[in-house]
Amino acid sequence: MPILRNAVPASLLAVVALVSLPGTTPAAEPDAAAAQTGSVAVPPDTNTAPPKTLRKVGDHWTPWSPPDPESFAPGATVHIIVPGETLWGLADITYNNPWLWPQLWNENRYILDSHWIYPGDPLLLPPRPVVVSGPGSVPTQIVPQDQEGAPHTDLGPLNGPDNGPEEPLQAEAPANPAPAPAHGDRHDFSSGKMVEWDDLRCSGYISEDNKRADLFIAENEEPGYDTVTLGSLVYLNRGKKDDRMKPGATFTIVQREGKVLHPITGATEGIYSKRLGELRVLKVLDETAIATITFACDEMRVGDELKAIDLKEVPEGPLPKFDRLRVEPNGKPTGYVIHTKDLAVRVAVGDVVSIDLGSEDGVAPGATLTAFAPVVRDRLGHMPDYHFKYQNEVFTSRDVHWDDGADVFPSLPVAQMIVMTTAEHTATAKVVYSIREIAVGDPVEVD
Known about the structure:
Layout: E1 3-5, H1 12-15, H2 31-35, E2 38-39, E3 55-57, E4 60-62, E5 77-80, H3 87-95, H4 101-106, E6 116-117, E7 122-125, E8 129-131, E9 142-144, H5 197-201, E10 204-207, E11 217-220, E12 227-228, E13 233-236, E14 250-261, E15 268-284, E16 289-296, E17 300-301, E18 305-308, E19 334-340, E20 352-355, E21 368-373, E22 387-390, E23 393-396, E24 412-422, E25 427-434, E26 443-446
Parallel strand pairs: 1-5
Antiparallel strand pairs: 2-6, 3-4, 5-7, 8-9, 10-15, 11-13, 12-17, 13-16, 14-15, 14-18, 15-16, 19-20, 19-26, 20-25, 21-24, 21-26, 22-23, 24-25
């Protein structure tokens, strides 16, 4: 079985502000174990005192009765706790969500107090939880990867009689389509798809309409905390008078980032918005509605806007042949990369960009594009002339040919993209093959 040692750096102490380390004492004394423990306090005012009775197990001190790591089932992932670690921090590293620390504790019940874990004790890491969802379906609760499903948590009073019967939270995952044809070493997408469903759910788009959405997250279940995460309960700004507010209704959580200017013309292309996650309405009241975050791909906050989920699977086929010597135009629409997700300076395979071609240009989801590397003619200038003697040799400035721009050098293909979503004059695309990085301002051509 894999046994992970020192899998989390000691710098994790700085990440979890709730960790407290007492002063160090000689390791041979029982109190030394307590001196190295990490405290997980969620919330902090419920923190408990460390256990007093410690005993030496193997080469470390612990108050618990940890199992022998060799006793775990074959294939299980076991982590040996090191100083400074916490269940909170380990859940953040393992699941990208610190609030899932109870899942770790549930698999290691020999730990009688979740606030205190001890270096040297083994920790069984259960499979990473996933959210089962699909196009047009309702996202589900978190279930372990090695299980086909699990009953969702009973939300009790949230499912009031005025809202009718609760719709099931569980939805079947979409059937995995046949793998796309192989393209040599162009890409390595394990599912056989170049554009995954989660790529769409976490993508962004440019909208020419500057009007703000009238539906947004009004408050968190914990007043004073703007940030929300997977599983959080939130209040919306609309209630029963809004026809969209129905138990089971789902929305995409969107953040408006800013105005996008064309890199060549300087004209305004629209407002860029990034999809952050999804939520589902649980209960509708007169002036508000209670919802839960069902999917997360970025930080979400109170005030983020909500839009209807209108995504569709991207049709895929074999990528066109990539010709490194393709310099002549093929007569199809051409444009430019005008934005990169998260404002990345350079992007490559797997990254998402926006282009200035849309449905009005005949571009549809599934269309492929070729990106080109422009020839940059701007030199920093000639090196200063020099003339000197060293030992028995005279050195002078190089007599080289400097092209003054009389010749025109064509751009060469460097990457291929597949269109994910389109607006009238813009589109979002994913880079699926590249031989070098590309950037905002690079030209593209429809294949």
